[in-house]
# Entry
Amino acid sequence: MTPTLTALGGGFRAEIQQLRRSRLLIVLTAVEAVTFLVLVSIFGLTGTHVPTAVVDRDGGSLARQWAQEMSATYHTYGVRYMDARSAQQALGRGDVAAILYIPPGFSQHMAHHSMIRIHFLVDNVNADLTTEVELGIPPAARAFGVANHFPGIRVVSAEKDLVRHEVGFIPYLVVSALALAAFVVAGTLAASAVAREFENRTLAYLKLSPTHPLVPLAGRLLATATVSAIAVAVAAVLVVAGYGVAPASPAALAAGLLLCVVIFSCIGAGLGTLVRRTLPLSALIFGLALALYLDSGSLEPARFYGNRLWVIAHTSPVYYAVGILQYAVHDLRVTPETVPVNFAALIGWALLAAGAAWLGLRRAVVA
Amino acid sequence: VITRAARALRHTWTLAAHDVGLWRRAPWAIAAALIPPVALGLLLYILTFNLGHQPIALVQEAHGRYSDHIAGIFQAQAGDIYSLVTTDRANAMRLLDSQQVAAVVVIPPNFDAGVARCPALQPGQIIRDYTYARSGCPAAKLQVTLNNANNNFADEIRRALSETVSFFDAPDVVTPISETQLDMSDLNPYRVNVMTALTRANTVDYIHYAVIPCLVLLILSVGVTGTALLCARDIERGTARHLALAPVSPVVLVAGRLLGGVLVSVVVIVPTLAIAAGSGLIAPPTGHWAALGLVFLATAVCAAGLGAVLGAIMRGSRAVSMAAVIVCTYLFFLGGGFTTIQFLPTWLHRMTAFVPTSYAIDGLRQSLFYPRLYGFTADMRVLLGTAAVAVVVGGLVVRKAWTR
# Structure
């Protein structure tokens, strides 16, 4: 027992020393992880509030109310009041995506309930933006009509929400991104620790160890997992403090992230064994994280993508991790599976990943 | 002078060709450069299928004239702004609970009576009496149960449902400017008819708009990673000292290294473009191939300059490769590769003006999608200016690193 523990501790210390000597790599790994948080935040900023110029040639109170309804209805438009010339210039520069011209006499027409035409110039830079901008108009017109009790509106909708406190898009995204930050940090550090053994040809020396040759390597992986756990904890604190997100269940958050670190360290060890080169590992893991990001319910519950993608999502641990993290932070249920089932699946993944990494490494050491 | 220039060119070419050969023999370096753009391209490709298609369940519990009419509108708009499942209430709630749909819309049994209570506007009707409206006309109510896990997709669903409901009372709130003959405004209770006009001759579908910029990421990633690794390799192996002592002008050596970086990008982008054009993924308008080539060449030169700076100031291939991934990702995202720049908040939008890739991506889109190269000259002016600065700075930094 003692030689095993000594070998494990030796591997742990050796890796910590190695990491202390490669501070730049640790910084870059942390930057990669934070990059995910930044990128999803940028992505989240683009979902709503399309900058739209309003040229108010009427100036009446109802015209202002129309523009306010545009701004308020489902966060579609970010309204900016401009004169016609500035609006045209802004559209040309791409500063606004559309211009709405409220004609003179608009307020009078609305007060007398007579029909008026409004011109709307849209920069159809792509089909998605064009549809988004055009789709926002009927709800705004409707909200204006309902607010002013216009006659002839015969149908309204009565909405009942499943979630009492609706979560903003960016707070939702950054919580999902924590799982991927764990993947990037734990995966890269563990994969590098293993791949370095192959590159430096030190793996053969492990066979001379008085214990099982994989024990020192396990010590190294334990060290990378510890450092990863600290880095992920820092990222989680950043999310909590920076985005003002208070976790509903801190214990579940900690347990979920810790399981992520364990799983991704094992997956990283497996990747390191397969690739056996340190050079492409960070790019490979970053690329894999991008692919995992989409099909994991990071943007919205994964099942809304359709059954095919949802079934594929089950093959990724990130799916279960996002389910746990969204519950732990926002008290949301984003997977049809319950939280205990998600935890059980993650534990299963951890065992599977550890077993696969152990087998792969054993085979490599023997070879 | 001519002989000397020819010799310098030969030396430059020799070093560049040598660098391309080295890069070709480093499959892991190639993998490191190719994986991020390929993964991002795949991500964007899959993401586009999910746009604006939230699953909704429709429960029709009334079967009168108005109920059938609004159910017909739901059916007609399905596929464009949401996907629709028609079912009974119990099953719809089961689907909502198991997250197979994001919302349940119920047309209740009293829907037709509710609609009938609020008379529609009649053609030519001048409304003077608002009393029934102001007293709160008991309009028919569609019952919506919504999974509002986050406000982005919840608002998307609300917007889509509001569009459908608006269509029931007023099919012509928004009318394309080309359809001025269509006028049902007498029946429109919202009393506005928004005439939309588009500024561009054609609207690019989102798949092409989003995925094509990955070509810029590809050239950027290959150029930056390739040049940076070649520079880092020289410093790691000590061959930089040999280069510094070589009886060749430093300008020639640095030019050879940067040309090598550009050629590495060209080696990757030319076959990619050939495959994309052959498979019909890209089809630039006639006469735009030269513009396209210029965008790629200028981007490749920028990438080589940037890669030279990275490779010269960082130590170790792994650090260089990681830094290259991070730099390329930020340049791509902030350049509008992953998002539509117009959506960004003002402060971030202004910041993108200083990101050279935004000009490369805009130039690429102009040369691929639009018949007139609107703003292309300005894009190229900035991009070529950045390329010149990158070459000069990259050259100086590499030269300094070699002599250190």
Chain B touches chain A through 125 residues (CB under 8 Å).
